[in-house]
Amino acid sequence: MSNRAIKTVDYTTLIKIFELDGFELKKRKGDHIIMVKPGIKRPVVIKASPKKVPIAHIRTNMTTADMSRERYFELLDMVK
Q1: Are 64 and 42 in contact (CB under 8 A)?
Q2: Which CATH number fits domain 9-79: 3.90.180.10, 3.40.225.10, 3.30.572.10, 3.30.920.30?
Q3: pTM (predicted TM-score)
Q4: Strands 32-36 and 24-29
Q5: For residue 43, is the peptide bond before it cis, meaning its omega torsion is within 30 degrees of 0?
Q6: Neighbours of 54 (CB within 10 A)
Q7: What does pLDDT average to over the chain?
């Protein structure tokens, strides 16, 4: 298990993380970016405002995407 702390990231970084995990942009409604992936029942919603995504939103999206902390950090390292 990763001991790294989840920190706020730019919303564009979060989009890239979910794209690497197989999510696709379905639509953009105002400042909400909706992403979907086959096999995942609910869409991941990323807000473009404020520019930095709060930790609680990142965790909620990870839960929705059934993404582990290890997978999140693996993808984050690929994006950076």
Answers
A1: yes
A2: 3.30.920.30
A3: 0.93
A4: antiparallel
A5: no
A6: 12
A7: 95
